């Protein structure tokens, strides 16, 4: 490590104390009062190198200011029909909490199509969920459990993976790069469930390309993962696709309020209403506009590009069979 953690934290904190407005203001939105935990996340992402961590933080804050990220939760995707189309094709939601109070994010990797809107809308939606998690969900969980809760767990459902997933690699690489640079180390563990038969072969090729700290976070569970996940969360918090073996498509549940991907699920209703309320507060200052929020899209890191190319190569080997999704690149996979 080269430098003891406490000393590294002290040095980075000293450097961050010197930043001026508006970086200082957006940094407060990043750490939400949990300064040390935030510095540790960024230090982990840069292997505890103080200079690299400081640069990463300053770059992140400049990105936030330039792209008005602090206001993104006041910019709804409208009309509502378009937002519903985004939700139906970008399958993500919160199903509940672990017994330790960590939010459980469910991600429908295999059945997400990302074909109902432009790239900018999907990036906007992803960042809004990140910001809602960091500004609303995690602070609320911290207050409820009486201790800092600054990370989540993610359950990745691989149901429905096909060779067509190749078309999503570019978008998923963009999203994972945004997460790597600006929301590092936000995921405690990735649980991968409902894996297709070729997953193991592809995983052997991709796994060595992932950073060690990411590899340690990934757990591939048998079947729908129900039995293993029940060790860390109650049944009510299980994603709908983990509740019954062989339940088929994980896009839909019998009850839309149990399907955490659905716009009708309490999580998405709360998120949608929160964004709408924030937009009404800002409306006198800035009228609500239709159209997506344009965020500067970063160049993927070399290791991310290598992972994407490896996934593409492996998928082609399997012809038209089911394959490993580009979202495994998002395990570089989004240390978010």
Automatic annotation (TrEMBL):
Q: Which domain of life is it from?
A: Eukaryota
Q: Which residues form the CRAL-TRIO domain?
A: 79-239
| InterPro entries, per database record | CRAL-TRIO_dom, CRAL-TRIO_dom_sf, CRAL/TRIO_N_dom, CRAL/TRIO_N_dom_sf
Gene3D superfamilies to which the protein is assigned, alphabetical: CRAL-TRIO lipid binding domain
Q: Which SMART domains match?
A: CRAL_TRIO_N, SEC14
Q: Name one Pfam family in it.
A: CRAL_TRIO_N
**Protein name (Swiss-Prot/TrEMBL):** CRAL-TRIO domain-containing protein
Q: List the source organism.
A: Carya illinoinensis
Supply the source organism's classification: Eukaryota, Viridiplantae, Streptophyta, Embryophyta, Tracheophyta
């Amino acid at each position: 490590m080269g430098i003891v953690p406490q000393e590294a934290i002290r040095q980075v904190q000293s450097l961050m104390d010197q930043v001026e407005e508006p970086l200082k203001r957006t940094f407060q939105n990043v750490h939400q009062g949990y300064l040390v935990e935030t510095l540790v996340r960024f230090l982990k992402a840069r292997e505890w190198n103080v200079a690299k961590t400081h640069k990463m933080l300053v770059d992140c804050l400049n990105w936030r200011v330039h792209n008005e990220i602090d206001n993104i939760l006041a910019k709804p995707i409208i009309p509502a029909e378009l937002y519903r189309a985004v939700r139906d094709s970008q399958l993500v939601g919160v199903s509940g909490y672990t017994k330790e109070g960590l939010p459980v994010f469910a991600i429908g990797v295999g059945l997400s199509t990302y074909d109902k809107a432009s790239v900018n809308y999907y990036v906007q939606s992803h960042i809004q969920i990140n910001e809602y998690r960091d500004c609303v969900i995690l602070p609320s969980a911290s207050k409820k459990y009486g201790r800092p809760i600054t990370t989540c767990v993610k359950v990745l459902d691989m149901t429905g993976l096909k060779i067509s997933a190749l078309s999503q690699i570019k978008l998923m690489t963009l999203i994972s790069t945004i997460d790597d640079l600006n929301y590092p180390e936000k995921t405690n563990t990735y649980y991968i469930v409902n894996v297709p038969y070729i997953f193991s072969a592809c995983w052997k090729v991709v796994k060595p390309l992932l950073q060690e700290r990411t590899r340690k976070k990934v757990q591939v569970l048998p079947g729908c993962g129900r039995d293993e996940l029940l060790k860390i969360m109650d049944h009510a918090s299980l994603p709908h696709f983990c509740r019954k073996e062989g339940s088929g498509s994980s896009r839909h549940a019998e009850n839309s309020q149990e399907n955490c991907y659905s716009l009708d699920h309490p999580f998405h209703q709360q998120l949608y209403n929160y964004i709408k309320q924030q937009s009404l507060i800002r409306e006198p200052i800035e009228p609500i506009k239709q159209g997506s929020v344009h965020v500067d899209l970063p160049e993927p890191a070399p290791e991310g590009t290598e992972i994407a190319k490896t996934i593409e190569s492996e998928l082609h080997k399997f012809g038209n069979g089911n394959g490993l999704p580009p979202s495994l690149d998002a395990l570089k996979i989004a240390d978010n």
